[in-house]
Design brief:
It is a single chain. Helix content is 0%, strand content 40%. The chain is mainly β and 376 residues long. Strands 14, 17, 19, 20, 23, 25 and 27 form a seven-stranded mixed sheet that branches. Strands 4, 6, 9, 11 and 13 form a five-stranded mixed sheet that branches. The chain has a four-stranded antiparallel sheet with strand order 2-1-3-5, with no helix packed on it. The radius of gyration is 35 Å and the shape is rod-shaped. The N and C termini lie far apart (104 Å).
């Protein structure tokens, strides 16, 4: 233990082998610093301040001694530690987590905590190739690395040990371990694809990941999904950002920050076809006796009779259109035709009532629902 003047660092007194209690006697009033040099190099001052006054990496405690005053609490708590080395490298070109193909070592900020997401114990700005932390031996820790203008690689592979959030959690059980973070320049668009079929509420559910999907990013055209047949983005917006029929989402323009909530909720669906025809002559609901197909009409559906309309659609050239309908859900379809009145009764091929409405639970794919109309 060495006592020196704070002003110029000159040595005042030294204790060659302090164990337990120690003391420096016969001092003048003034500003001093005490520095410890542990006999065992695998020990360092504890991170837990409490009664410990010494800094972890400087091994130093500076204090002021007033005239006729004694300082009796210059305590030093020691921990057995392992040295853990951290670094970050630019993996923008290859993006495979291999340090050998990195463009350069990055300046970054590193920190660690004793629990995932817990209070940061120590934060350090890395300006060279490697930095190290003294980690209490056999303790569980989580490392965090950030680098301005870069995002984590997103997957642990090869030399990269950090996840998509720039975090690595593990128990340090040996000395001189290396922990490297592959980083990718620029910003990112990310999100979660989940199955919204059962809940059907548009609320992100991380316990129900959905896939596999092919996701394509196009310049100025957003992200597109190409998924399994009979699965489409949910009608419930909520956390879902993708359009039902376009399977597309165009996020806000990336300027300085990444966009991390491009979530996609998927529903199992059936394709339901709607068709309108002119039954003015026969008035019996038979498609075989129709006057003609009606190619200009308005269609919509709701989940309850008279409930909020989900998807209004106007056709101007096709008598038959389709909706993606959530599988096994109760649905009410509505059709209105300018200049026409619904047939008024469900019969033969006509499924729609006098209000131009048809309600049913959709249990099969490719079902066809015909609506007979009479010209006013």
């Amino acid at each position: 233990m060495t006592l020196s003047k704070k002003s110029d660092g000159s040595k005042v007194k030294e204790i060659a082998a302090a164990t337990g209690d120690y003391q420096f006697r016969g001092l003048d009033a003034g500003d001093y610093c005490i520095t410890e040099s542990p006999a065992a190099t695998d020990y360092a001052p504890t991170y837990n301040a409490g009664d410990n006054k010494f800094a972890v990496y400087t091994y130093k405690f500076c204090l002021t001694v007033a005239a006729n005053d004694n300082i009796n609490d210059a305590h030093l708590g020691m921990n057995k530690v392992f040295k853990a080395y951290l670094s970050a490298f630019d993996d923008s070109k290859v993006q495979n987590g291999l340090l050998a193909y990195s463009l350069q070592t990055l300046h970054c900020n590193a920190s660690f905590s004793y629990t995932d997401g817990g209070p940061k114990v120590y934060t350090f700005e890395l300006l060279s190739d490697l930095m190290y932390f003294y980690i209490p031996a056999n303790k569980a820790v989580c490392y965090y690395i950030t680098s301005t203008g870069y995002e984590p690689l997103c997957k642990v592979q090869n030399d990269n040990t950090f996840d998509s959030t720039g975090k690595e959690c593990l128990t340090i059980d040996k000395d001189s371990t290396y922990h490297r973070a592959a980083m990718v320049k620029g910003m990112k668009i990310s999100g979660l694809v989940w199955d919204d079929t059962t809940a059907f509420d548009g609320k992100l559910d991380k316990t129900k990941p959905f896939g596999p999907l092919k996701m394509t990013l196009r310049k100025a055209n957003g992200t597109l999904s190409d998924g399994p047949t009979n699965n489409v983005p949910t009608y419930n917006t909520g956390d879902n950002k993708f359009g039902v029929y376009t399977s597309k989402y165009c996020p806000p323009t990336l300027v300085t920050t990444s966009f991390t909530d491009a979530h996609l909720g998927m529903n199992k669906v059936f394709k339901s076809f709607l068709n309108a025809f002119d039954d003015s002559t026969s008035k019996n609901g038979l498609m075989s006796e129709k006057v003609a197909d009606i190619t200009a009409y308005h269609a919509d559906f709701s989940y309850t009779p008279g409930g909020p309309k989900v998807w209004p659609f106007d056709t101007t050239q096709n008598s038959m259109i389709y909706f993606w309908i959530p599988a096994n859900k109760n649905i009410c379809f509505y059709i209105t035709v300018p200049g026409f009145t619904p047939l008024g009764k469900v019969q033969n091929d006509n499924s729609f009532d006098s209000e131009g409405k048809y309600c049913s639970v959709i249990t099969t794919d490719q079902a066809r629902h015909n609506a007979a109309f009479i010209k006013n």
